[in-house]
Amino acid sequence: MDIKSYLSKKKDLVDKALEKLVPPAKTFPASVHEAMRYSLFAGGKRVRPILAIAAAEALGAKTTDLLPLAGTLELIHTYSLIHDDLPAMDDDDLRRGRPTCHKVYGEAIAILAGDGLLTMAFETLSDPRRTGKVPANRLLPIIKELATASGVFGMVGGQVVDMESEGKDIDFPTLEYIHTHKTGALIRASVRVGALYAKAGKRQFTALTHYGEMVGLAFQIADDILDITGTREETGKDVGSDLEKGKKTFPSFYGLEESRRRAVEVADRAVLSLKDFDKKADPLRELAKYIINRVN
Known about the structure:
Blueprint: H1 3-21, H2 30-40, H3 47-58, H4 67-84, E1 94-95, E2 98-99, H5 101-105, H6 107-125, H7 128-131, H8 136-150, H9 155-164, H10 172-197, H11 202-229, H12 232-235, H13 241-244, H14 250-254, H15 256-272, H16 282-293
Antiparallel strand pairs: 1-2
Helix pairs in contact: 1-3, 1-4, 2-6, 3-4, 3-10, 3-16, 4-6, 4-10, 8-10, 9-10, 10-11, 11-15, 11-16, 15-16
C-alpha cells in the first residue's frame, strides 16, 4: 500500500474534524484562540489520530464517529508540544519550521493555550453532541485511557524525569522510562483508543497494546537519531539540542548504528504483534516502517 497517500487522506479527515472542535481564531478572548490554532494547525502529520483510525480499521470498524475522538489526541499532543517548548521546560524557539507558540504570543498565553487544548480534549470527549453515536460504556474507558496517558503516570511523569535527568549520567532504565512515558504513553493510548472504539476482543486488545508500545519506542529512537543526523530544514526544529542540554539518548548509550538497528528491531516487533490480523491492519504495519524512516 501507499502509506504516504494513506497518511495524506487521513490527515485531511483529521484536520476537518479539528476545525469543528476548535473555535475560530477571533472568538473572544481572541489571543488564546489564535495561539491554540497557531500551534494546532502548524503542519503536524497527525500520526496519533491516524494510529487510532488505523487500529479501528484493523478491526473492521467504520471510523466516521471516531474522528472527533481521534482529534482529541491531536489536541493533547499539541498542548504537550507548546508546554515542552517553554523556557522553563526544553526552551525551544522553533517548532515545525516556525517560531514556537511562546515566541509569538508570549509565555503566559502559550501556557494558557496549552491548558485550553488539553481541557478542550476532555470537553469534547464528554460532549454528547460530538460523541453521541459512541456509547457511554465505550467512551468512559477511552476517557480514562487518555487521562492516564496525559498525566503523572504518562506524559507528565516522563517530562518530569526528563527535566530532572538533564546533565546527569542516568542509567538505561531511566532513559526507557522517559521514552515510554513522555512520548510512548500517548502513542500507545492512540492505538488503544482505536481498539476500544472498535470493541476489540481481549487478545486483539493485547496485541494492539503491544504494537502501540513498540511503535512508541521506535518513534522516540528515531527522534533521538534525527536530533543528530537531521537538519533544521528537514525536522522543522533546531537539531543537536539533546547534546547541548546534556540529555542521554539512545545514540549516547549505543551509538548511531546500533540505535538504527534497534529502531528497526522494535518496529519489526510492532509488526509481529499484528500476525493474527488480516490485510485491514496493513496501514498499521506500514506506519511502523514509516515511523523509523521519516525525516521529521
